[in-house]
Predict the structure of Aminomethyltransferase.
Amino acid sequence: MTSSPSPAAEAPRERRTPLDAVHDALGATMTDFAGWRMPLRYGSESAEHRAVREAAGLFDLTHMGEIAVTGPEAARALDHALVGYVSKIGVDRARYSMICDADGGILDDLIVYRTGDTEFLVVANASNAAVVAAELVARAAGFDAAVADRSEDYALLAVQGPHAVAILAPLTGLDLDAVKYYAADRATVAGVDVLLARTGYTGEDGFELFCAPADAERLWTALAESGVPHGLIPAGLSCRDTLRLEAGMPLYGHELSTARTPYEAGLGRVVRLDKPEDFVGRDALAAREQAGPAAALVGLRAVGRRVPRAGYAVLDPDTEEPIGEITSGAPSPTLGAPIAMAYVPVDRTEPGTRLAVDVRGTAEPVDVVALPFYKRA
């Protein structure tokens, strides 16, 4: 006797952004990312990478999660939930932060926007959005604050690159030069109401625009048309990864995980042990700060042409014994050499240190270099 699978047993439905038809019309190569159908590339990923470095790229980032935390004690609730000092964020400003477990392990890295005295928008990675929303609900218990997953209410577009201001300026009355880095403001862009933030994940200047899903295609079209004389092209997830790697920016599931604390990742600065509000993971993180990390995240630049990929072992160059692991690696279009990030013992972190990487059975030499690999002028 057989029976049909219950709805609960069926594979989860692939989620599509409001720009899905646009990506198909542009001939994008699509991929699954955290359950979303997303553009990997539209043509050449190296051309998209170079466009962002030299002109501008247009990204669909709707897969990111948006969680609203509001109410008289919203700031205190977030001080308790996150490692950062959220109460110190000014209205219309943003801050990079993390949510950690009781052992200090990283559940996700986040950007927190303060959109009002008692209103915050927490932006989480797509793969962790549901976890972060559930944790914030649990951690806000006992505070006069409400937590709501608003991810379905937003589409998110980004214009990244040195020509971003020139592309956006004709479309809005907002004085873009007055918008500081890690600031956000309500604005109208091409007739669309947006939350415009000067943030990004590429190492370049640029803006992220939160809008209603129904307005996403209209906004994309206006940005694309305005960007034509400035060299803007659509850019996918593939070049986004090489851009953030060059900029030394961590990716959850690679550099960041529950197996690491912010201190191993070189991000201890985001942990505010001095804030008056107790927070989840405080004791563990204070102990780790006191003891110091056993391993640290470093940049590696290959001496040869073979690429150190995520998961490859980092070796002692003399004994060829494993001492660490590559977390991210790729050819760098900007530097013209393979680069990687890896966790290694703290006594192997000095720039100029020669190490090796097991690339398919061969110990390939690499040098430790300071992060980031690339920093805009």
